[in-house]
Design goal:
This protein is mostly helical. It is built from three helices and no strands. It has helices at 2-73, 79-100, 114-171. Helix 1 runs antiparallel to helix 2 (79-100) and helix 1 runs parallel beside helix 3 (114-171). The protein is elongated, with a radius of gyration of 33 Å. It starts with a helix and ends in an 8-residue tail after the last helix. The relative contact order is 0.11.
């Protein structure tokens, strides 16, 4: 019987130590998971802040591009231009608000609880969607302006070619497209 009590004590010690080691392993796993989530949130936050910082310059480029094409086409005082400029001003104000309220990048996210990191990631995603909307609108506007410039160049080249043909015909000579 003396052996049986010794074995039972050994089993009890093994069971308690197993419980302590498994609790420690669970704690470490949670910490590693938290650090990994903090890295993901930190990267998303850095990317978002970079995009927010560049947003005002993108808006200015888009406005310059739009105004240049509108002036070239003679529609600076049109209702469409005024509506575009009004929408641009609203988006500029929204972008300025994003710049002023952008999330703090310097916060040590490793110490933030997992549930709060998930909430923080959701907030970053929502802000990122707003930035996507504004960025997409003005990148598309600049692409449209670029197509408008190309159309104007092609029309000018066609007009110049037509003029050269008419001039050659009026002079009675053959038309040479190389000249």
């Amino acid at each position: 019987m003396a052996e049986a009590s010794w074995v039972s004590y050994l089993g009890a010690v093994t069971g308690v130590s197993g419980l302590i080691l498994s609790a420690f392993a669970l704690w470490r796993t949670e910490r590693v998971r938290n650090v990994e989530r903090a890295v993901v949130v930190g990267k998303a936050l850095a990317t978002l802040n970079h995009r927010i910082t560049e947003l005002p310059e993108l808006l200015l480029q888009a406005r310059r591009s739009y105004e240049a094409l509108a002036a070239a086409e003679g529609r600076m005082k049109s209702g469409a231009t005024e509506a575009w400029l009004k929408e641009w001003d609203e988006d500029r104000q929204a972008a300025q608000a994003l710049v002023e309220r952008r999330p703090d990048e310097d916060k040590d996210l490793r110490l933030v609880p997992f549930a709060e990191l998930a909430r923080y990631e959701l907030v970053i995603h929502k802000i990122s969607q707003k930035v996507d909307l504004i960025e997409g609108r003005y990148r598309a506007s600049m692409a449209s302006d670029e197509r408008g410039v190309e159309r104007r160049k092609q029309a000018a080249q066609a007009e110049a070619l037509s003029f050269r043909k008419a001039t050659a015909w009026a002079k009675g000579g053959p038309f040479d497209p190389e000249k």
